[in-house]
Amino acid sequence: MSRNRPVLFPNHQRLLEQLGERLRLARKRRKLTTGQVAERAGISRSTLYHLEMGEANSSMGTLLQVLMALRLEDDLALLGKDDVLGQKLMDAQLLRSSISKTTNPPRNKKVSKKTASKEQET
Prior knowledge:
The radius of gyration is 28 Å and the shape is elongated. The protein has helices at residues 10-29, 34-41, 45-52, 60-69, 84-103, 113-121. It is built from six helices and no strands. Helix 2 packs across helix 3 and helix 2 (34-41) packs across helix 4. By secondary structure, the chain is an all-alpha fold.
């Protein structure tokens, strides 16, 4: 049974290829063979080859295993850490929320006739 490959836009495919190239360079800088990294990661050499080629059919778990074999798993903690765009979007939403609260004060509750008559009695 063959796995379906996800269809990617060309710029997304290039990102995966660049990630694969960085994995390959990290392995070579450590003077490790594909066999050594695959064995440490508990995957086949062909799976490592596909990751290094930037193919999109590998799981995130497999990527994590390779990063751990290369001792790069701490780099995952940096992913999205300085999310400038996300912070700006959240701040803008928070500002809109606080502005609408100050410009639209809470409306008076509708008082039923029973409540109004009880308040007048006291």
